[in-house]
């Protein structure tokens, strides 16, 4: 069982500025530096839209939901925590 850590404590440990805003848990493709933007599963198949723009990243409500997607996706993807720094973003891989 993974230990839960508060986002505020993680921000301190990562030395992020006070004004950083936690966007959410995102799925990232490291090899192409893209974020999962949208996905669908239905009777006709599955579809994925990836974006280089962090603003368009789909935010999962929990790390476990993002990890579930990563396990089901066929390509190398990782779960990350995305923070908005105002003029840039900071991505940190989940443990």
Written account of the structure:
- There is one protein chain.
- The protein is an alpha+beta fold.
- It has one domain.
- The chain contains two helices and five strands, in the order αβββαββ.
- Strands 3-2-1-4-5 form a five-stranded antiparallel β-sheet.
- The radius of gyration is 14 Å and the shape is globular.
- The model has no long low-confidence stretch (mean pLDDT 91).
Break the fold down into its secondary structure elements and pairings.
Blueprint: H1 7-13, E1 21-29, E2 34-42, E3 45-51, H2 63-72, E4 78-84, E5 89-93
Antiparallel strand pairs: 1-2, 1-4, 2-3, 4-5
* Main sheet record: 5 strands, antiparallel
- Helix content class: 10-25%
How many strands in all? 5
Distance between the termini: 12 Å
Order of helices and strands: HEEEHEE
Give the DSSP E fraction (strand runs of 2 or more residues). Answer: 35-45%
Overall mean confidence score, pLDDT: 91
Keywords:
39% strand; 5 strands; alpha+beta
Quick structural gist:
Helices cover 18% and strands 39% of the residues.
